[in-house]
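TL;DR need structure tokens for one chain.
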Amino acid sequence: MKWLGGVLSVGAFAVLYYFEKRRPLRDEVEPKEINTIRNLAIASVAGLAVNFLEKPFADKLTKIVEEKRFGLLKIFRLPKIVETVFAVLLLDYTLYIWHVLTHKSPFLWRFHRVHHADLDLTASTAIRFHFGEISISVLFRAGQILLIGVSPEALKIWQNLLFISIFFHHSNIRLPKNFEENLEKIVVTPRLHGIHHSEIRSQMDSNWSSGLSIWDKIHGTFQNDIEENTFRIGVEGFDNLQSISLPKMLIEPFISQNNPQNKRLRG
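>> reply
TL;DR here they are.
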């Protein structure tokens, strides 16, 4: 059943890609095919970091956690299904914390900014992460697994749910208003995450959740009262196609320390 997660992710992406063309939430800045190819190219490089760093490291740690009964959840000796549910919830919450860190830390922001520099926000943006950010996040993922006490099964379930979730809320799909308003009470929706990808700092510093929207509500960072057509997607300083070319995006984090564009956002 190892193939199931891949099938679900590819299937979710294909369905969302189709509806992005039929019911777009935002007007496209550049041709969809060009944007998608660039995003997938950036993602493919990051995928190498996932396969050669994160996956083997995480798989080994979850096996150690299970064998040694290491971590917070193992202390309580909960029924397996209850432990798995709590592990998935805590992974989702701690990912919220990591996401906040990638914005608040100037060093991490240099890498995470590549994700936000997309001029369009689509399902392909969901996996547009710099390989440097993925590599650095391995250490945080290790902390999640060891602190929580994450089993191999719980990690796999969370990863599968996460991929479907991020594809969905990054997608450029206009949902029926009442349906989305009800849905956002539980999970992150395209309109909510669109606010997070605004180039206005006060709006970007909200809606950091990746799965359940409750984490933003708990921390007071939930924002759903911004009209879609009142802001631009992207990052100040990366506002044209030349500034977000594939070579530029791959090398930018390594040359941006003294670059005026390293300033986060206008308030």
